[in-house]
Every structure is written in structure tokens, then in C-alpha cells.
């Protein structure tokens, strides 16, 4: 019984830490999205103030800003993890009525499988966030270079 209870507690802990990791990624994506939008709007307006058309550095800035927005939206809209965690909690509530060792072990196995599935989905979210940060940097550098070249 103690072994099953220990496995169950570990699976619950993993799911809880995944929730905080998802929340951190989404918070960071919101921050990057805000920084990209605000920074690019100010710098682009300054960079394009005297130009009739959009120079090639301007197109790079626009493309990078678009990439940054898409990457951040991918992180913010990654609801698959939330569904998986909610399903795991629902499964746990369904099993609460059963108090024997075999039911506890089965519930621990189900929650552990959910946690493992979530682990495989969390890493790409952080990669998308990293790509968004990189694209934001490229966009801001392109606008700054365009300002410096005029």
C-alpha cells in the first residue's frame, strides 16, 4: 500500500509542476508578445518615417515580427496540455472511491502516463518560445539598423 501511495504522490507532484511550467511559458510568451508589438511599433514608425516604400531591412523586420507573433501565439494557445492535465485529475476523482492497493497502483500508473505525455509536449512549447524571443530580437535589430542607416 505504501509503495502505491508513494507512486501516486509522485505522479501528482509531476502533474502539479507541469501546470506551473505551462503557466510560466504562457506568461513569458505574453511578455515577449507585448515587447515585440510595442518595440516594433515604436521603432518601425521611426524607421519608416522618411521612406516612401519599405526597404529590405523593413521587410526583414516585418517578417521577424510576424514570426515572433506566431511563435508566441503557438505557446499561448497550447491547450492540449491543459486538457491532458484536467483528464488526469478527472481520472483521479473517479478512482477516489476505490481504496484498495490495486486501485491506487492503477491510478498512479494512469497519472504517471499522463505526466509523461505532458513532458513530451512541454519541451516544444519552450522551443517555440525561444524561437519567438529570437525573432523578436531580429525584428528589433532590423528596425534599429534601418534607423541608423537613414
Please mark out the parts with pLDDT under 50 across 5 or more consecutive residues, or reply none.
none
Strand content: under 5%
Structural class based on helices, strands and sheet pairing: mainly alpha
Sketch the major β-sheet. none
Mean pLDDT: 83
Helix content: over 70%
| Alpha-carbon Rg, integer | 23 Å
Distance between the termini: 74 Å
- Helix run count: 4
> How do the helices and strands follow one another from N- to C-terminus?
HHHH
Shape: rod-shaped
For the secondary structure, the number of strands is 0
Briefly summarize what is shown:
With 150 residues, this protein is mostly helical.
How would you describe this structure to a colleague?
The chain is an all-alpha fold and 150 residues long. It has four helices and no strands. The chain has helices spanning 2-47, 56-76, 80-95, 101-149. Helix 1 (2-47) packs antiparallel against helix 2 and helix 3 packs antiparallel against helix 4. The longest helix is centred in the last third of the chain and has 49 residues, at 101-149. It starts with a helix and ends with a helix. 25% of the residues are buried. The model has no long low-confidence stretch (mean pLDDT 83).
Summarize this structure as a short list of keywords or feature phrases.
150 residues, 4 helices, rod-shaped, mainly alpha, 0% strand
Topology, element by element:
Blueprint: H1 2-47, H2 56-76, H3 80-95, H4 101-149
